[in-house]
Amino acid sequence: MTELISIREYARRRGVAHTSVLKAVQRGRITLVRGKIDPDAANRAWETNTDPAQRRPTRGAKGVNGTPKRTPEGVTYAKSRAERETYLARLAALEYDVKKGKLVDADEVRARVFAIARTARDILIGMPDRLAPRIVGETNQHEIHRMIAEEVARVCNEIANARGL
User: Fold this and answer.
1) Is residue 89 situated within a structural domain?
2) 0.85 cut: is pTM over it?
3) How many angstroms separate the CA atoms of 14 and 37, rounded?
4) Number of domains forming the structure of the chain
5) What is the full per-residue pLDDT of the chain (165 aa) written as tens digits?
6) N or C end of the chain: smaller count of CB under 10 Å?
7) Whole-angstrom distance, CA of residue 163 vs CA of residue 165
8) Is residue 32 part of a domain?
9) Domain that holds residue 127
10) 47 in a domain, yes or no?
11) Is 118 left (phi over 0), alpha (psi -120 to 50) or beta?
């Protein structure tokens, strides 16, 4: 365990006002150990628990060209925030498409397609029974062809008009 230091000493080392450290303690972003601060643990907690959007440049914590240094934890927070925002935007777009009628429930579509396929199967299975009595005495090949084509067209129309989709 490293040495424990006072709040004011930690603020001085961190390059922030001691009131900033007090606020961090009060909000639970860093914790005290017997009224003192473990600087290593406090630094990790400070970086992990601070929203990068809320950070102000700290004294002496400048990077290239006077810009604030970026910490790996800050980048992780920003990345996870961006992923969350992307997810929420995609979710909103999906909800919009559902309300607009562009997207439908896949289970509902499967059920309707199954119902139409069953109807088509039943109609097709009954076709020989409907045609056989009409064709049985016919000897003209062209007339037989016309009857079959007519029945196939009737079946196709019945399937197309089937309720389900």
Assistant:
1) no
2) no
3) 12
4) 2
5) 578 999 999 999 999 998 999 999 998 889 898 889 999 999 888 888 877 666 665 555 444 444 555 555 555 777 888 899 999 999 999 999 988 988 888 898 899 889 888 988 988 899 999 899 989 888 899 999 999 999 999 988 888 887 654
6) N
7) 6
8) yes
9) 106-160
10) yes
11) alpha
